[in-house]
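Thread: guanosine-5'-diphosphate complex, take 2
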Amino acid sequence: MALEVGIVGLPNAGKTTLFNCLTRLEAEITAYASKSDKANVGMATISDPRVDALAEAVGGKKLTRASVKVVDVPGTGPALLGNLRQVDAILCVVDGFSPGCTPQDDLVNLELELIVADRDHVEKRLERVGKQAKSGDAKMKVEVEVLEKLLAHLDAGQPLRDWPGEIPPELEPLSTKPLIVVENGPNGIDCQLELELADMSDEDAASFRNEGSESALREIGKRLFDALGLIVFFTAGEKETRAWTLREGSTALDAADAIHTDIAKGFIRAEVYAWEDIVRLGSHTEASRAGLMRLENKTYVIQDGDCLNIRTSA
Ligand SMILES: Nc1nc2c(ncn2[C@@H]2O[C@H](COP(=O)(O)OP(=O)(O)O)[C@@H](O)[C@H]2O)c(=O)[nH]1
Ligand SMILES: [Mg+2]
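Output below.
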């Protein structure tokens, strides 16, 4: 599952600083320096010491971490925010570092901008669907009614997350997405400091942070996983050891599908190991010998930290 997050914030809140500290740890940085009206796009890797330990234990040549696509949108108008209709979650960066900053007020304003962008979007869709409804399409007539209600809700300044009814799936609203608030400054995540620490070793970087604070990447990764209800499973082998993300409640078949659709098609059984057992015993074979491998079928619900080997006819 290619996860995607958008960064929104008022001008100079530190969006691009956060974008840089999230994406620079990735070896292949696909971010491009952009003109002011273009979004920055890059990949942030989610560090997870478990996958490092697994790769070391099995002697994997290649290590692939879970990653998230990050989109930094340089403004809050409806057109720019429209770039974020596909994202899974929104990072709201608010200024918590300048003298006289008002992060709480800025957050309220940002949420309003998202509502305004949705209002604009619903209005446009209403125009289009309204025309089709006039020509007698019954389904469109129903949608017009729904859209009119949604428009009134947004006009009242309410996010669609609070809308009790159904939302047409084609709408892709912004104000239903999980918001992860990042107060940029000493009381939240100090993005400028994090950017300066990004090239240091974990231990060195930790000595510069407030006690108990984690790296921005770790902290945001955690919040993102919580907000989206994600878990991680692993595959480990000589060629590649890899971390994969899934929604909580996903099955072994979903996991196979995340790896490759062919593997899902040919699914026979999933060998399931606890990642700690592989690390401790050094290989799947040894873990099996110790009776620590389970064979599960398609409907097995994957647990965070499972290490899988899918038996497939593919
Ligand atoms: N003191 C301080 N300055 C910051 C921090 N984050 C960003 N800045 C500065 O604020 C300005 C705007 O940052 P930028 O990331 O470009 O903001 P954007 O407009 O939201 O993308 C830059 O000069 C940054 O160096 C921070 O945490 N502390
Ligand atoms: Mg910027």
